[in-house]
C-alpha cells in the first residue's frame, strides 16, 4: 500500500528494499551475476535480438527503455541499460526502415529523457551515445520519399528545447555533436537536414559564446560546401536554414555574428537566383493527359503552366524565406543590425528584381509597407499607453513567438512565415524607428520603384502614393519631409514615362496633401485658461499641456509640409533650383540695368544726351554729396556686384603630388588619375570626396595618422582647384525673353493644362492662407507667447512668396503655349474636318481663362505689396514683383501683352508713388510703363 501511495511500481528496482536477513543471500546472487558466464549469457540475450520478429523487437526495446529509465531515476543513476539500448541498435542496424521507425519511437523518446536528465554526466553520456547511433544510421543512407533521418535527429532538437533552460555543457555537447554530424556525414544526409537546421535555429538563441561559434561555423560550412555540391537535397529545408541564420542575426548578445549572419543571408539570395529551377517539385513538370474527353492521349500540359509552378516554388521556398526573415531581423534587432538588414533587404531586390514576377512584387511591397505599420498603429507605441496594456502587448507577442516555434517544429515551414510588429518600449524608441528605419526604407523603396518602374508602376504606384501620403501626414518632421522628397524623386525620375492616368493620380495626391495639411488652427487657436494661470486639477492641467504640445507639433509639421509641397511642385515642373537660379539672374540683370541707367548719377555728372559715351565704371573719388535716395541707390547697385572669378594670384597653386608613387593606389581607387581630363567624372569624385577620404582602403594604407591628415589636405586642395576650374569654364546660362529656358528634364511639358491649373489653384490657396496668417499680427503674438516657434515670431513668409512665384511661372508658361495646346485640343475630336475649328475655339476659351487668372493674381499681389511696410516682409516680396514685371515686360506678342497689361496699367502705376521702392523694381517699372505707353501710342 505504501508503494502504491508513493507512486513506485511493484517489482521495479526503485521499489527494492534490502532486508538484513537476506543480505547474505543477496550478496551471493550479486556475485553470481558478476561472473563471466552470466555476463556472456546476458550479452547473448541482446545479440540474439536480431532473430526477433518485428513486433517482438519493438516490445523488447520498449521494455529495455523502461528498465533504463528506472536506472536513471535512482539516486545514483546507472547507465548499463542505456548502453544496452545502444548495443541493440547496433545489432539491429540492418532491419528494414519500417521496423526501425517503430523501434525509434521508443529509443528516440528515451534518449530525449536521458539527455534532459538533471545529472549532467548522464545527459552528456546520452547525447554522446545518440551521436554515435545517429552516425551509424545516417551512414546507411536513405532512399527517396523516406524520412527516417529526420526522426533520427529529432532527439537533439528535443534535448535543447528552451535553450536558456539547458545547462551550458549540454548545449555545447549537442552543438558539437550536430556540427560533427554535418561535417562528417553531409554527403549521406537526406531528410535529416530539416531537423539539423532546426537544431541550429534553437542553438542560435543561446547566450554561450562557444555554442554560437560552433553552430554558426556549421552554417558557414553548409553554404560553402554543401550548397555547392548537394543543394538539390536541401531545397525542402532551405526555408528553415534561412530561419536559423535570421535567429543568429537577432541574437543581441553577439553583434559581430549578427552582421555575419546577414552577409550569409545575402549569399543565400545569390544561391536562389542561380538555382531557381531546383526549387520546383517533381510534380510541377509537364505531365501527360490520358483523359479522352480533355485531350488526345500523349498531349503534354502547356509549358507556361509548368513555368508558373516553377516560379511559384522558387518564390515560396527560396525568395519568400529570405525577405520575410530579413524583415524579422529589421523588426527585432538593434539599430546597427537592423540598418544592415534593411540595406541587404533592398540590395537583394535591386540585384535580382529583374527576375521577379508581378505577384512577387505585390508581396514584397506589402512586406515593405509593413515596416511603416509600427508608426501607423499608435497603440503599439508606449506613448500614452498604460503599463498594463504594454504588458498585455508583450504577452501577446510572446504567445505569437511560441506559436511560431510550435508550427516550425511541427513541420509547417511555409505557414510559419508571418508579419510580426515591433513593440516600442518608449516614445524615444518609436521616434528612433521613424528617424532611421522608416526614413531609410522610404528612400530605398523609391529607388527600387524607379529602377523597376516599367514592370511594377501600373499595379503599385497607387499603393506607393498611399504610403507617401501617410508619411507626409505624420506628426514627425523628418518623416514628413522625406515623404515629400520621395514623391518629388519619383516624379522627377519617371515623370517622362507617366501616362495621363498617372499624372492625374499624382496631381490628385498633391491636391489632397495641400488640403489636408493646411494648419487652420493657427488662425483660431487661443490659450486654455486651465493651462495659463487658472487653478484646476493638476492631472487635467498636465493633460491639457500635453495636448497643446502635440497640437503645436502637428501645426508646425503641417506648416513645414505645406512649404515642402510648394517646393515639390516647383521642382517637379521646373527641376530643382531652376526657379532660384532664374530669380538670381533676374535680380542680377535688373541691378546691371539699374547701374547702367543711373551711372551718371553715381559719377556725379549730368545725365548724358542720347548718343554720348557713357563711362564704364563709377568714379570712386567723387566728392559730391548724394541725397538719401541716391545713397540707397548706390548701396543697392554695389551690394551684390556681378560675380567674377577671382584673379589667378588669389588661387593657391595646385600642390605637387607624387602621382606615380604612394598616391597612385589612392588615385586609381578614387578614379581621379584616369579621369583628370573628364570634368563630369571629376565632379562626381568631388561630390563624394568625404566618402573616399574616409574609406577603409585609404586608412589602411596610411603610415601614420599625421601623415594621413596631411595627405587628405593635399587631396582636398587638389579637388578644390579642379572644382574652381570646372565652375568658371562652364558656359553661364542667360535669360531668354525674361526667363530661363526650360530644362530638358523639366516635366511641365508632360502635364496637361487642366492639371497645371489645378496645381495653380492649390498654390494660390496656400498663398492666401499664408498671407492671411502673416497679416494677423495679434494672432502671431498669441502663438509666440504660448511657445509656438519660440525663437522668433511665427510667420509663413516663404510659403507666401514661393507659392505665388510658382503659380505665376506656371501661368506665364501656359500663356506662351499656343500651338502645342491647339494640337492637344484637336486630339479631343475624332472628326478631322471639325478639329481645327473647334481646337481654336477651345484654345481661345482656355487662353481667356489664363488671362483672367493672371490679371487677378497680379493685381492682388501688387495691391498687397503696396500695403506692406518697409521691412523684411516687403523685401521678401521683391522677388515676386521682379518676376511679375520681368515676365510682363518680355511678354510676346504685343497683342497678348496688351490683353494682359492693359487692365493692370492703373494698378502698376500705383507703384510709382510707393516710398522706398527698390531700384531693381524701379527699373522694371520704368520698362513696363515705356512699353505700355508705346503700345498705347501705336494704337492711337
Structure, described:
With 940 residues, this protein is mostly helical. The chain contains 41 helices and two strands. A two-stranded antiparallel sheet has the order 1-2. α4 (54-72) packs antiparallel against α5 and α13 (255-274) runs antiparallel to α14. Mean pLDDT is 78; it is low at 1-15, 282-302, 377-394, 412-416, 607-627, 629-710, 723-731 and 819-834. InterPro entries: ARM-type_fold (IPR016024), Mon2/Sec7/BIG1-like_HDS (IPR015403), Sec7/BIG1-like_C (IPR046455). This is DUF1981 domain-containing protein. Residues 746-929 form the Sec7/BIG1-like C-terminal domain.
Layout of helices and strands:
Layout: H1 2-6, H2 23-33, H3 36-47, H4 54-72, H5 80-91, H6 97-115, H7 120-139, H8 148-160, H9 168-185, H10 193-203, H11 209-230, H12 238-249, H13 255-274, E1 288-289, E2 299-300, H14 303-332, H15 335-352, H16 358-370, H17 373-376, H18 387-409, H19 427-451, H20 453-472, H21 477-494, H22 500-516, H23 521-524, H24 538-574, H25 578-597, H26 599-603, H27 628-638, H28 664-670, H29 679-687, H30 689-693, H31 696-701, H32 705-729, H33 753-775, H34 777-785, H35 797-816, H36 819-826, H37 832-867, H38 872-889, H39 894-901, H40 905-909, H41 919-939
Antiparallel strand pairs: 1-2
Helix pairs in contact: 4-5, 4-6, 5-7, 6-7, 6-8, 7-8, 7-9, 8-10, 9-10, 9-11, 10-12, 11-13, 12-13, 12-14, 13-14, 13-15, 14-15, 14-16, 15-19, 16-20, 19-20, 19-21, 20-21, 20-22, 21-24, 22-33, 24-35, 25-41, 29-32, 33-35, 35-37, 35-38, 36-37, 37-38, 38-41
Amino acid at each position: 500500500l505504501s508503494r502504491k501511495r508513493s507512486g513506485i511500481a511493484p517489482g521495479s528496482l526503485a521499489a527494492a528494499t534490502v532486508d538484513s536477513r537476506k543480505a547474505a543471500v543477496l550478496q551471493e546472487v550479486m556475485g553470481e551475476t558478476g561472473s563471466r558466464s552470466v555476463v556472456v549469457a546476458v550479452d547473448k540475450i541482446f545479440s540474439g535480438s536480431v532473430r526477433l520478429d518485428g513486433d517482438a523487437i519493438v516490445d523488447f526495446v520498449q521494455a529495455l527503455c523502461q528498465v533504463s529509465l528506472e536506472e536513471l531515476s535512482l539516486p545514483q543513476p546507472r547507465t548499463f541499460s542505456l548502453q544496452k539500448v545502444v548495443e541493440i541498435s547496433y545489432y539491429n542496424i540492418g532491419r528494414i526502415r519500417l521496423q526501425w521507425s517503430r523501434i525509434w519511437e521508443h529509443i528516440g523518446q528515451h534518449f530525449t529523457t536521458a539527455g534532459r536528465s538533471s545529472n549532467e554526466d548522464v545527459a552528456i553520456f546520452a547525447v554522446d551515445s545518440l551521436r554515435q547511433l545517429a552516425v551509424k544510421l545516417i551512414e546507411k543512407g536513405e532512399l527517396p520519399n523516406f524520412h527516417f533521418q529526420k526522426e533520427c535527429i529529432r532527439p537533439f532538437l528535443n534535448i535543447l528545447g528552451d535553450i536558456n533552460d539547458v545547462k551550458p555543457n549540454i548545449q555545447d555537447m549537442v552543438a558539437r555533436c550536430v556540427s560533427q554530424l554535418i561535417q562528417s556525414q553531409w554527403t549521406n544526409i537526406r531528410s535529416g537536414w530539416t531537423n539539423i537546421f532546426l537544431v541550429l535555429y534553437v542553438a542560435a538563441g543561446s547566450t554561450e559564446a562557444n555554442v554560437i561559434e560552433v553552430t554558426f561555423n556549421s552554417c558557414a560550412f553548409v553554404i560553402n560546401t554543401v550548397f555547392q555540391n548537394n543543394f538539390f537535397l536541401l531545397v525542402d529545408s532551405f526555408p528553415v536554414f534561412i530561419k536559423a541564420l535570421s535567429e543568429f542575426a537577432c541574437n543581441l548578445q553577439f553583434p559581430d555574428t549578427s552582421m555575419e549572419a546577414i552577409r550569409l543571408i545575402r549569399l543565400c539570395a545569390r544561391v536562389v537566383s542561380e538555382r531557381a529551377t531546383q526549387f520546383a517539385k517533381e510534380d510541377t513538370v509537364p505531365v501527360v493527359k490520358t483523359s479522352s474527353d480533355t485531350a488526345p492521349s500523349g498531349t503534354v500540359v502547356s509549358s507556361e503552366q509548368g513555368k508558373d509552378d516553377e516560379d511559384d516554388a522558387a518564390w515560396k521556398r527560396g525568395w519568400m524565406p529570405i525577405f520575410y526573415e530579413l524583415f524579422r531581423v529589421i523588426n527585432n534587432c538593434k539599430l546597427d543590425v537592423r540598418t544592415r538588414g534593411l540595406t541587404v533587404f533592398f540590395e537583394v531586390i535591386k540585384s535580382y528584381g529583374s527576375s521577379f514576377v508581378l505577384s512577387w512584387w505585390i508581396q514584397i511591397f506589402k512586406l515593405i509597407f509593413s515596416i511603416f505599420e509600427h508608426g501607423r498603429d499608435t497603440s503599439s507605441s508606449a506613448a500614452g499607453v498604460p503599463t498594463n496594456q504594454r504588458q498585455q502587448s508583450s504577452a501577446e507577442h510572446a504567445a505569437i513567438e511560441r506559436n511560431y516555434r510550435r508550427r516550425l517544429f511541427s513541420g509547417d515551414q511555409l505557414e510559419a512565415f508571418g508579419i510580426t510588429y515591433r513593440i516600442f518600449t518608449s516614445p524615444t524608441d518609436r521616434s528612433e524607428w521613424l528617424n532611421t528605419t522608416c526614413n531609410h526604407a522610404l528612400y530605398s523603396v523609391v529607388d527600387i520603384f524607379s529602377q523597376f518602374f516599367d514592370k511594377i508602376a501600373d499595379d503599385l504606384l497607387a499603393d506607393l502614393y498611399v504610403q507617401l501620403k501617410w508619411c507626409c501626414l505624420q506628426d514627425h518632421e523628418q518623416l514628413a519631409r522625406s515623404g515629400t522628397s520621395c514623391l518629388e524623386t519619383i516624379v522627377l525620375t519617371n515623370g517622362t514615362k507617366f501616362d495621363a492616368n498617372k499624372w492625374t493620380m499624382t496631381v490628385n495626391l498633391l491636391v489632397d496633401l495641400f488640403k489636408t495639411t493646411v494648419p487652420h488652427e493657427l488662425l483660431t487657436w487661443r490659450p486654455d485658461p486651465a493651462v495659463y494661470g487658472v487653478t484646476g486639477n493638476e492631472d487635467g492641467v498636465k493633460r491639457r499641456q500635453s495636448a497643446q504640445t502635440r497640437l503645436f507639433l502637428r501645426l508646425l509639421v503641417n506648416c513645414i509640409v505645406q512649404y515642402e509641397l510648394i517646393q515639390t511642385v516647383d521642382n517637379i515642373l521646373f527641376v530643382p533650383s531652376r526657379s532660384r537660379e532664374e530669380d538670381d539672374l533676374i535680380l542680377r540683370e535688373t541691378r546691371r540695368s539699374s547701374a547702367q541707367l543711373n551711372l551718371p548719377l553715381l559719377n556725379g555728372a549730368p545725365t548724358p544726351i542720347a548718343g554720348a559715351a557713357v563711362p564704364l565704371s563709377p568714379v570712386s573719388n567723387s566728392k559730391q554729396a548724394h541725397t538719401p535716395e541716391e545713397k540707397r541707390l548706390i548701396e543697392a547697385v554695389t551690394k551684390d556686384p556681378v560675380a567674377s572669378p577671382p584673379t589667378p594670384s588669389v588661387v593657391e597653386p595646385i600642390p605637387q603630388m607624387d602621382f606615380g608613387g604612394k598616391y597612385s593606389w589612392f588615385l586609381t581607387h578614387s578614379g581621379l588619375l584616369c579621369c583628370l581630363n573628364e570634368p563630369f567624372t571629376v565632379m562626381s569624385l568631388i561630390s563624394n570626396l568625404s566618402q573616399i577620404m574616409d574609406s577603409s582602403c585609404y586608412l589602411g594604407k596610411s603610415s601614420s595618422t599625421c601623415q594621413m591628415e596631411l595627405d587628405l589636405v593635399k587631396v582636398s586642395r587638389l579637388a578644390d582647384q579642379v572644382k574652381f576650374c570646372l565652375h568658371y569654364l562652364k558656359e553661364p546660362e542667360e535669360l531668354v525673353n525674361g526667363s530661363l529656358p526650360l530644362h530638358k528634364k523639366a516635366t511641365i511639358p508632360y502635364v496637361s493644362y487642366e492639371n497645371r491649373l489645378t496645381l495653380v489653384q492649390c498654390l494660390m490657396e496656400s498663398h492666401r492662407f499664408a498671407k492671411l496668417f502673416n497679416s494677423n499680427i495679434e494672432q502671431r503674438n498669441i502663438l509666440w507667447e504660448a511657445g509656438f516657434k519660440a525663437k522668433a515670431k511665427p510667420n509663413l513668409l516663404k510659403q507666401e512668396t514661393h507659392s505665388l512665384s510658382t503659380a505665376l511661372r506656371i501661368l506665364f508658361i501656359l500663356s506662351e503655349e499656343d500651338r502645342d495646346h491647339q494640337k492637344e485640343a484637336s486630339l479631343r475630336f475624332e472628326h478631322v474636318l471639325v478639329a481645327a475649328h473647334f481646337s481654336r475655339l477651345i484654345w481661345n476659351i482656355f487662353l481667356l481663362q489664363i488671362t483672367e487668372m493672371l490679371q487677378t493674381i497680379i493685381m492682388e499681389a501688387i495691391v498687397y505689396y503696396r500695403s506692406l511696410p518697409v521691412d523684411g516682409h516687403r523685401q521678401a516680396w521683391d522677388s515676386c514683383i521682379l518676376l511679375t514685371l520681368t515676365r510682363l515686360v518680355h511678354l510676346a506678342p504685343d497683342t497678348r501683352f496688351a490683353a494682359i497689361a492693359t487692365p493692370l496699367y492703373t494698378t502698376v502705376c500705383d507703384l510709382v508713388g510707393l516710398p522706398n521702392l527698390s531700384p531693381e523694381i524701379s527699373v522694371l517699372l520704368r520698362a513696363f510703363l515705356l512699353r505700355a505707353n508705346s503700345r498705347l501710342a501705336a494704337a492711337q
